[in-house]
Design brief:
This protein has helices at 12-35, 46-70, 79-98, 110-114, 130-154, 160-178, 204-229, 232-249, 254-280, 290-303, 309-328, 333-347, 353-368; strands at 190-191, 195-196, 199-200, 282-283. It is mostly helical and 396 residues long.
């Protein structure tokens, strides 16, 4: 019986590059911020640390989006919901950590005192426990995604209809969290955090630890996603993306595969939200806005769907441009974002990561004196290779 050869996770060179990137972002930069004097030229500023942590959290969401959209063909416009739910779960723990340091010097959060609440609502039960909070960060987005995905996928809802439903779900939760009686701070959300695990959240060592934890989360997410897509699970996902009916007729449980990757993507987004909140210092219902979910899709498309590394590049590229534009030309940011998406769709349908694929054959041709042959270079507009799930390779 023929079996497909198992692809290695990374080449030795890729492992070296990945390791060096992690050492720089996850170790060198946090240590420089924690140990070097404030006026040292090599010390990253607090703003740089916050911005880097925020971008890495966004990159985690982009990788999750690539798993469900780039590899499975499920365009979700609800990833910001799972991101925000993870952020709110961790935000409750941070709010309990304020204690009597708040404006009203009460054991209740300030917004509850202002609304004349006497006790914590049931949703805040055990919210001062770090372990319980970590469970909620994973369980709440995962459970919601599992229940929603089960009924949606079982009903064979897909394409633009699935996108619209996920967008409507996100908008409904945003309106719910805007209400004061839900007990989540209304339109102001959670902010003014003081401590995390007993450490002052503004201390350089705490910020360094948070950035290091975020780097671990991003690199762990990337390696996990790479491991999934290079195994049989990933080949089946691509088969579902290319021809779901054929995959189902070949005996694959397409509902189980789609539900599994959909739930995993929600959990990754929730963990990213939990890492985001203590670094940025605020979480409110605007993080659930459908516009934010659309931005996640743009990061993935700009970077390059189905590549894993492309969405990470797209998240950094788009949000870096956003940080600059919203300061220099705030009124033109949305126009630039729309223009960027249109240009990438027209001229770089495979994302900016495709530029490296174009440069590599030219560099090889310059070294050997010949360019890529027509057999090596796909024709313009040609479709990517499909995964043959009916073959023995698909069942390896």
């Amino acid at each position: 019986m023929l079996t497909a050869p198992r692809r290695s996770l990374f080449t030795p060179v890729q492992w070296v590059i990945l390791g060096l990137a992690f050492i720089f972002v996850g170790i060198a930069v946090p240590l420089a911020h924690a140990w070097l004097p404030v006026d040292h030229a090599l010390r990253p500023s607090t703003y740089t640390m916050t911005l880097s942590g925020k971008f890495m959290c966004y990159a985690m969401v982009a990788v999750a989006m690539d798993l469900i959209w780039g590899f499975t063909g499920i365009l979700s416009l609800g990833q910001s919901l799972f991101f925000a739910l993870g952020g709110y779960a961790f935000g409750m723990y941070l709010m309990r950590g304020i204690g009597r340091e708040g404006q009203y010097q009460s054991d209740l959060p300030d917004f509850m005192v202002f609304l004349d609440w006497k006790t914590l609502p049931w949703t805040w039960w055990n919210s001062d426990s770090f372990l319980w909070t970590m469970f909620l960060v994973v369980a709440v987005p995962g459970a919601l995604a599992f229940v929603f995905g089960f009924f949606a996928f079982r009903s064979r809802i897909k394409g633009v209809y699935f996108s619209i439903i996920t967008q409507a779900l996100t908008f409904a939760f945003m309106l719910l969290f805007f209400r004061n009686e839900t007990g989540f701070g209304g339109n102001n959300g959670f902010t003014d955090f003081k401590t995390i695990l007993g450490y002052r959240i503004t201390d350089p060592s705490t910020k360094a630890a948070l950035l290091a934890a975020t780097a671990v989360g991003l690199f762990g997410t990337f390696v996990l996603a790479r491991w999934l897509v290079t195994r049989k699970f990933g080949r089946v996902l691509q088969a579902i993306r290319d021809a779901e009916s054929r995959a189902r007729f070949c005996g694959y449980d397409t509902l189980g595969y789609k539900l599994g990757i959909w739930t995993l993507a929600a959990v990754i987004s929730g963990v990213a939200g939990a890492l985001y909140v203590p670094q940025v210092g605020i979480i409110n219902p605007s993080e659930m806005s459908p516009a934010n979910s659309i931005e996640v899709a743009i990061w993935t498309a700009v970077g390059g769907r189905g590549t894993l590394i492309g969405p990470i590049i797209g998240a950094f590229l788009v949000n870096g441009a956003k940080s600059w534009f919203t300061q220099a030309f705030p009124e033109y940011w949305l126009f630039f974002l729309g223009l960027l998406f249109v240009l990438v769709t027209l001229f770089l349908p495979r994302g900016v990561i495709a530029l490296f694929d174009r440069i590599r054959p030219r560099a090889q041709g310059a070294d050997t004196g010949v360019g890529p042959t027509s057999a090596e270079t796909p024709a313009a507009g040609s479709a990517p290779a499909r995964v043959a799930v009916g073959s023995t390779e698909g069942r390896a």
